[in-house]
Amino acid sequence: xxxxxxxxxxxxxxxxxxxxxxxxxxxxxxxxxxxxxxxxxxxxxxxxxxxxxxxxxxxxxxxxxxxxxxxxxxxxxxxxxxxxxxxxxxxxxxxxxxxxxxxxxxxxxxxxxxxxxxxxxxxxxxxxxxxxxxxxxxxxxxxxxxxxxxxxxxxxxxxxxxxxxxxxx
Length: 169
Known about the structure:
Largest sheet: none
Structural class: mainly alpha
Number of domains: 2
InterPro entries: DUF6155 (IPR046153)
Radius of gyration: 20 Å
Number of strands: 0
């Protein structure tokens, strides 16, 4: 059904029928429930802290011995927060945290596989693009510069690419 057809259908319904349909959607579809829960009671700070704990647990686990280093965990939260329409500054904070915690992990260990460095570069490019789009580069510029300088100090194989990505044109 197209958006136009949906609008036409909705105009034919009275208020009670609309309310009934929304409540049915809320009960049947978890994404709708999540959306309405967020809209009416955002608690963004709590969500950000939960995400940071899960992301840091990927690199510094509390219940197992080895770090999993899965970028997908952070990406799942970032995508979810974008869907919810979270405050862009808080979302950029999560994106930065993801890269910073990975860098902290990489500092204390042997060289990582090439996939790790490539994955962090992809996360960094996404961060810079998102921050540029939302005009947040001034607020987070110092953290971005720290990330770039740390890649150079630690001699990451793709440090030059981080430097290039940090300077959007």
